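User: Structure please.
Assistant: Input sequence and predicted structure:
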Amino acid sequence: MTPEQLATAVRAAGARMLDRYAAGTRPPGLPELLAKLHDNDAAVAEVLRPALAELRPEARWLDDEHGSGPLEPGEWWLIDPVGGNVNAVHGMPDWNIGVSLVRDGRPVLAAMYFPVLDELFTAAEGGGAFLNGVPLRVSVKTSLDGALAGTGQAQPGHDAAFFERMGKSFAAMSAAALYVRISVPVGHQLAQVAAGRMDLHWQLENVRSHAAGVLLVREAGGVVTDLDGRPWDLTGEGYLAAAPGVHAAALELLTA
């Protein structure tokens, strides 16, 4: 199976979501918001599930976008049906369709599509990362003082202690980097790191659906480790994805 085959499925799902998307959308309250989130995810899954099953019948399906921890051995399709769904529901353009194929805990194929911009990011293990077919390379920066950094809330429901840790990491990075962005979806930021538009992204948690973005960064020449400096693992906790020239400095800052 090739990235191009996966890209076809992801583009079709993006077209379905574009039919549902409207820049003027504003949900009046939480019940309406939650209903729209659910309906968007369901509409995209309706397109993706049969398409991916045809591409790789033996691979199991998992669309728990906030799930974490180990998977059983074998191949899994990890799906974030609408990354940044809450943005789409509020009429903002920064949302995506993200898919990765994970084999024995290792991402081997990924596609992430930004339908509003018609930008399609793809990667295959050992085969590089691409944006609309053009090879990607991470930033060549070597100093944090010129770096564009980012983080975001990967999932809801954290306690006050987690947000205190997140705030401390933001304050530390803000004192060192040129600019720090806190936003969702996380996949958007990882894709921007792969494209060299941003220089680093860090997380205090590790959500399985981030695997597509992690593969993009790796295949574009970036470095992805946990916050102790060990190679990224699907079952780890936090991580740092960065251009090689700023990874060590960012890691030292985040673990100080």
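Residues 30-55 form the longest helix (26 residues).
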